[in-house]
Write a structure and sequence with these properties.
With 174 residues, the chain is an alpha+beta fold. 27% of the residues lie in helices and 25% in strands.
Amino acid sequence: MSTAVEHDVRHRSGPRPVAAPSEQAPTQRRWRHVAPPLSCDTDALRGSLPASLPAQTSLERASADPAPLLINLTRCVVEILAGVRSLEQVTRWVTDDVYSNLIRRVTIASRSRAITGGQVRRPRLTVGTPIVTRPCEGVVEAVVMVHQPTRSRAVAIRLEDLAGRWRASAITVL
């Protein structure tokens, strides 16, 4: 007699027996790609920054165009995943969560290249114009298309204004 087994993504201990639906915690996430919606409360993030950093007014923030950063950050992330650029080059533009997620993706990509015998080559790519939305003050969400000879990819980026600087709080390469 076999029992159902599911993998818990929070722990790397391997398979565990499935609990009855009434026994599972309601806040437990089973899938890694499903994340809770990001809030627009950037005041909590600003509270963790040093008080010595100058805060910009909303008028100054609105005039700072995020499109050049979105284009450059997209190009850098695709090149990082291809293995031709160092991850440390984007640390000042990403949050700690994004950095750790990129480390995981880079490790998986490098292991895959090692197993298949693939070589590290600079990707030939064309970065499209970002489609930008502003869900609330100090937050920009954008999608940037990256066209390569063999396929096209979408890169979704969420930028938050922290101490007068745009920082990526979420990056997803599809």
